[in-house]
Amino acid sequence: MAKLTEAQRRQLNEKQLTYVVWAGTPKGLRHPDTEEELCTVIGVGRTTLWRWKQDPRVLDAVRYVTLQHAGDPDKVGKILDMVFNKAVLEGDLKAADLWLKAVGVNSMAARENTILDALEEDDFANYSDEELARLRDEALAGAAEDERIAAAKQALKDRGIEPTVVE
Length: 167
Hints:
about 0% strand, single chain
C-alpha cells in the first residue's frame, strides 16, 4: 500500500465532506433531518460521526460552511460580540458556552487533561444511569467553573485590573 503524503492525510474524504456540508447547513434546511439518518445515508456508524466531530479539520470545515451560510462576516462578529458581552457583563453561562463553542475554544479537540480524557478509555458498560449522570454533571461543572474563571479574569484585564491568584 502506498504511503500517504502529509497533504493527503489532511484532506477530508467524500463522506466527511458530506457531513461538513450537512452540519454547516442551518437545521431547518438540512436533509436528512437527523444525524442518525445522515449516518444511514452516507454509510457510517454513529461512532465514526462522533470521531469526525472531534477532528479539528472537520470542525474548521464546518465553521467555514456555517459562515458561508451566515453571510456578511461583520454581522457574525457583531453577534459574537453581543453574546460575549452578555456572558461577561451578566454572567450568563449559556451565553459563555455559546460564545466559546462559536469561536472553537469549547470543543473536545481543544481540551486536554480533563476528566473527559480519563473517561474516554472506559466503555461505561458497568455504570448505572445515575453514575453516568453524576460523571456528566461533574465534567460539566468543572468546565463551567474554568470558563467562569477565565471570563472573570478577562473582564478584569479589560478594565485595567490585573487579576491576582489567592491560594
